[in-house]
Amino acid sequence: TDYGTPQSTSEKNVTINVDGFDVTVPEGTSVMRASMEAGIQVPKLCATDMVDAFGSCRLCLVEIEGRRGTPASCTTLVEEGMKVRTQTDRLKGLRRGVMELYISDHPLDCLTCAANGDCELQDMAGAVGLRDVRYEADGQNHFKMRDGGGEVNACWKPKDESNPYFTYDPAKCIVCSRCVRACEEVQGTFALTITGRGFDSRVTAGMSESFLDSECVSCGACVQACPTGTLQEKSVIDIGQPERSVVTTCAYCGVGCSFKAE
Ligand code: FES
């Protein structure tokens, strides 16, 4: 299970109530993690327990009694006696609206995508009950171009297939920054960054032209962190998803890099 945010090491405990269920967790735990520990799944895209919370996707919004607005549960820490609601009609509507915007800027090629069946964007679209998308943006255009139609525009960027182990397809990127944070926090390398604004925003390999020219050490942390088919192992693209995979820790040095064995 991915609890969305790293575990707190505090020895002091805090009890909160989530959707009517009391849950006791260490101080410093996120509301998202506490909810997950209470067995309540909060939709999420940018949060993972691999890296610190960032609060960029706005899918994990919750309501907290006595507070205005709808804070992100991944970046909000528990406080004694907090009463949290995760499934109100208002929250469900907000999440569907957010997902609609993501999908409107994403290729609709799930059936031929190597990440089909292992894609958190696909899972979350189902989890929030998204059925129709009213908008059409650049992601759809990338898809049409590959199909022989559509128009080239300033936002279009080709796939980066320079790395021998994985590919990067900016058309599928939702700019959650999980790969950037995994590169920094898991590997301790600063090979990736986010550039641009709006439809033009994308992950780039620093100032380099490609991943191969960058400071990337091919550790795979970014590929493991990616919630969509943006960063894909070449072996998965060639032969499909493995029947089973195990995430383990490399035993060769003290850094503690994790990798996926298939
Ligand atoms: Fe909390 Fe993305 S999962 S903002």
Helix content: 10-25%
What count of helical segments does DSSP give?
Answer: 7
Low-confidence stretches: none
Query: Any guess at the CATH architecture of the largest domain?
Result: 2-Layer Sandwich
Topology pattern, helix = H, strand = E: EEHEEHHHEHEEHEHEE
Average predicted confidence as pLDDT:
87
Radius of gyration: 19 Å
CATH topology heading of the largest domain: Alpha-Beta Plaits
Q: What are the distinct ligands in this entry?
A: FE2/S2 (inorganic) cluster
Topology, number of strands: 10
How does the major sheet shape up?
Answer: 4 strands, mixed
Structure description:
The protein has helices at 31-37, 89-104, 120-127, 138-146, 178-187, 221-225, 234-239; strands at residues 13-18, 21-26, 63-64, 83-85, 166-168, 193-195, 202-204, 231-233, 246-249, 258-261. By secondary structure, the protein is an alpha+beta fold. It has two domains: 1-87, Ubiquitin-like (UB roll) (Roll); 97-261, Alpha-Beta Plaits, CATH 3.30.70. The strands form four sheets. A four-stranded mixed β-sheet has the order 2-1-4-3, with helices on one face. Strands 5-8 form a two-stranded antiparallel ribbon. A hairpin with a 2-residue loop joins strand 1 (13-18) and strand 2. The chain is globular and about 50 Å long. The chain starts with 12 loop residues before the first strand and ends with a strand. The mean pLDDT is 87. The protein binds FE2/S2 (inorganic) cluster. The site of FE2/S2 (inorganic) cluster has 12 residues, from loops.
